Here is the input.
Amino acid sequence: MKKYFLLTVLTIFTFIFTACNFQLSGTNYVTKPDVSLSTTPGEIIIAIPKLSSSTQYINIYRKKADAGDSTLLNIGILYPDKYPTTETAYIFKDNLVVVNQEYVYRIRYRDEEGYTTSNWSDKIASDSSTYTASDVLAYGTAGFYYAEDTCTLEMNGTPDSPSAISNFSSEYNPMLIISTSSKTQLFAINSVADGELYRLKSFLPEDFYDTPITIVGILAEKKETDSSTPPQVKCIHFTEPTEIPIQGYSDRTFKVSTTSSSSGVDYSRAARTK
Here is the structure.
């Protein structure tokens, strides 16, 4: 008989990413970010213009510059109040890039009045990245079982880790991606190993109950902290997401009955299908 282990949620964050599919409306975009190659091989620097002192956080989006590939990825989030006020721009470093692949970047600013989006950056490619197009920079696929009576997900199989990523096991943590019709959030989990249980009622926020929710998939995140005591998270890097099918739920969607809990990590991007 299989032995089950309950996962405890390590930390539940409140990063705002809104809808599952990142939507842009209107044509009034603010100044594009500057992009350049770092002195560190395989790293692209995104210099994000300061927009307002009231900016709460900033989302960084990336897509391939190829005309035939419009997949938009949420690659990170940055917290302006954790950066020195003397800096003229916020710096985000993207080091999960494929050699000689051209990318463009877009920024979304969040304040109490809503969102403001930048124009796309100029194209840029790294000719010194350690990653090639054949390297896997996301979790492999597996499966979920969902038990409606206990509102738990069980991992069926162990997804391959993106072992090509440098220091993956020591620097990255797994996250579960869950969405409603209006938002998508990330929830920290202990593991993505076979047989692990995710008790949804232990961490879902109130607005995820009594409404259809979709288990989008999984990804890994890496936090970057400042020099304060104790250290504060200044930005977070995300791997590409991976879609995980649920047995008996072809659209990976169901409802959980009412309860209450705290908020999760808000995340906007469709999951990668392996």
User: Anything to note?
Assistant: Confidence is low (pLDDT under 50) at residues 1-26. The chain has one helix and 17 strands.
